[in-house]
Design a protein that fits this description.
Blueprint (H helix, E strand, L loop, with lengths): L5 E3 L5 E3 L3 E2 L8 H10 L4 E3 L7 H11 L7 E6 L7 H12 L6 E4 L17 H14 L7 E4 L3 H10 L6 E5 L7 H9 L3 E5 L13 H10 L3 H10 L4 E3 L6 H7 L7 H8 L1 H4 L22
Parallel strand pairs: 3-4, 4-5, 5-6, 6-7, 7-8, 8-9, 9-10
Antiparallel strand pairs: 1-2
Helix pairs in contact: 1-2, 2-3, 7-8
Amino acid sequence: MPASKTVKLNTGAEMPTLGLGTWKSQPGAVEKAVAHALKNGYRHIDTATAYANEKEVGLGIKESGVPREEIFLTTKLNNSDQRDVEGALKRSLEALDTPYLDLWLMHWPCPMTKDGKADKEYDWLDTWKEMERVYKANPDKVKAIGVSNFSVPYLRRLLEHATVVPAVNQIELHPACMQEDIVEECKKHGIALTAYSPLGSDASPLLTNPIVEKIAKKYNVSPANILISLQANRPQVTVIPKSVTPSRIDQNAKIVDLTEEDVKELASIEKENHLRVCKPYWTGWGNIGFPDLE
C-alpha cells in the first residue's frame, strides 16, 4: 500500500500528504523552520491563530522564495474567536501576510471566551454556519474549510446541518491513538484527515516501541520515519510532523511504502497501550464525544 504524495480534497484541490506542523514552534525559530522546510521540498505548512506564530510563519514563507501558489497553507479559527468568524479570518490573513488560505479549520468544537473559559451561551454549530457563509462569500480568500478535533458524534451533528461538507478533519493520529471510528466516518463522507502528533508526543514512548523499532530496522530508517509513514500510507490521510530542527525536518520527509502487514502490526500497538495525548478537558467542554474519554 504505497504512501500517497497528495490527497484530493472534496473541493478538487490536491493537498500535499506531508506538511510541517508548527504547534509549540516559537517565534524566532519557526520562521527559519518554515523557510528551511519549503526550500527543501515541503509544500504544506500548518499553523493556527492559537499558536501565536502566524506572523512568523508568513515571514518564513516569504523568506523561502517559494511562490505562494505552490504552497498549501492551513490555519485555524481560535476557540475565543468563534463569535467573530469574519474578523478572525481577516486577522489571520493579515498576520500571515497572504491573500488567501488553502484551508481554514475550526480548531475545536469548543467556543471559549477571551479570558479562557467555556462560552456555554454559544453553539459551535453556529460557528460552522458562519464559516460556511464567509467561505461562500470569499472564494478568493478561503479555498476550503474544515474542522479539527471532531469526534464521530460531533461530525454527525455537523453533517446533519452542513451546507458545506468539511474538506478535512485534523485529529491526533499515531499507533497508540488510531481513531479508526473517525477515519471511517470521514472517508464515508469524502472528508480527508490530517494527522497531528504522529510521533505520539514530544518525548514519545512510541519511538522506542519494539514493533516500531523492528519495522524501522527493516526499512533502514528511523522510528520517527515509520510513525510518519504510517499516516501517509493510510488512504485520505495527510500528516504534519513538527520540528524546528533543520536536520529533523529533512529526515521527517523520508516517507516509506509500508506493507499491509506493517500497518496491521503498528495498529496493534494501541490494543496494549492506548494513549491520547491531546485531551479536550482544558476547554471546559468535557470529552466532546471521544469514546475513550467517556
